[in-house]
Amino acid sequence: MPISLNQHTMMIKIAIHFLCLVLLVNQYWLALNDDLGADPVEAILHFTGIGAFNLLILSLSISPLVRIFKFTSFIHYRRLLGLYCFLYVLAHLLSFLAFEVQFDWQLFLNEIIERPYMTFGMIAFVILLLLTITSIDKIKRQMRKSWQKLHHWVYLVIVLASIHFYMSVKSDITEPLVYALISLILLSFRWKKLFKYFR
Amino acid sequence: ETQALQYEKQALGQQVLTPESKVISHNNFYEFGTAKSDPFNNSQGFKVEPWQLKVSGEVENPITLNYDDLTSMFTLEERIYRLRCVEAWSMVIPWVGFQLSSLIAKAKPLSTAQYVAFETLEDPKQMPGQANRRLGGGISYPYVEGLRIDEASNPLTLMAVGLYGKTLPPQNGAPIRLVVPWKYGFKSIKSIVGIKLLKTQPPTTWNRLAANEYGFYANVNPEVDHPRWSQASERRITTGGLLARNRIETQMFNGYGDEVAHLYKGLDLRKNY
């Protein structure tokens, strides 16, 4: 019996859930047991940060793929990828608070205010939080046209994420530059929209 | 392959050592790559024999140490030191070595010698970070460091040839490295081939790359932040995994103020970071 399109979509969604959750849980499990290198805190921060960026890139790849390359069924995965991006960002931020500064709130706030790359990261987090809350169907319907406007802020998020990554490295800027380039390519698919904003 | 060393042991006291497995698998040595695990992963074929360490410059008696001299010319002793990385993590490491002051004395410095410059081996065939700009983090090679002559002559300043009772593994700077425990880790240059006494202050690698972030002195100082993070506290790498409560306050001069604070009397440590 051939599987229907719906079943197919469902299977891919389950695969996305499985991958995102298993990878995340596995890293935390290893880190808790001190099996993630000499500094599990650093390892977790890197994993969740890069993971969130990867998910952001994937979710922003969806609409160009649908619009230009006609992979129309991909649209079903956009929200899920966006939500997992937020989960990874949340894990990134909470891990910084709990394991890096270890609930030294004074230090936490100082770092976010005083260090530009931390400030940019925090702004990106707040925007993603708003996008996540408003992705609930009921709220989305109530927001009507303003929903689309709000969700365009994700373009700012990928710019902030690129700067956050670039500024956080010590000297080797290859990896942040590759991510910034991918971000620019993704933004270039929206150039008309962005142009309209800034006119 | 590391070998056992003969040395005078030091009492551990109250300090908790960073496990050997972590000391040898987590550090910066950009010659072998920029990730913390790269030095361990990319250095295991590194050849330390034969080795030559030349002491030259403003000295009466230039000397060259061969591989065997490194462990036999001076009596070796254990020194358990805190190592504070500029990135705000730290370890406690039992080094084995001899005082740099003994080596300098042997070379008989001239009165004109004011600074000591150090240089790491340059060998792109063995050090992938030197052969590939991306792997090497974009810093210029060979890695160079420097101290004032009085800093170099301080009894704390160690030439380490081993850790945990054995010769240094390649990733930790075999066969011989500097350890300056009151300064950020990047001052403690690894795999040294040249020590030169100079009249003037030598350039240092990280200062050349980002002068606003890394100064010549690089003394551990909780009151002077790195532009991108606070230096007021640090995470001590030991055991316990993710939940280890390992954030501790950073001590001025990494806790070695009694031994070294007098070196900086009258110096503005905010300007001379």
From TrEMBL, chain A:
It comes from Thalassotalea profundi. Part of the MsrPQ system that repairs oxidized periplasmic proteins containing methionine sulfoxide residues (Met-O), using respiratory chain electrons. Thus protects these proteins from oxidative-stress damage caused by reactive species of oxygen and chlorine generated by the host defense mechanisms. MsrPQ is essential for the maintenance of envelope integrity under bleach stress, rescuing a wide series of structurally unrelated periplasmic proteins from methionine oxidation. Belongs to the MsrQ family. The gene is yedZ. This is Protein-methionine-sulfoxide reductase heme-binding subunit MsrQ. It is a multi-pass membrane protein. It comes from the Bacteria. Binds 1 heme b (iron(II)-protoporphyrin IX) group per subunit. Binds 1 FMN per subunit. It is found in: Cell membrane; Membrane. Heterodimer of a catalytic subunit (MsrP) and a heme-binding subunit (MsrQ). The chain crosses the membrane at residues 12-31, 43-69, 81-99, 119-138, 150-167, 173-191. Its cofactor is heme b; FMN. It holds the Pfam family Ferric_reduct. Residues 49-161 form the Ferric oxidoreductase domain. Its main location: membrane. Keywords: Cell membrane, Electron transport, Flavoprotein, FMN, Heme, Iron, Membrane, Metal-binding, Transmembrane, Transmembrane helix, Transport.
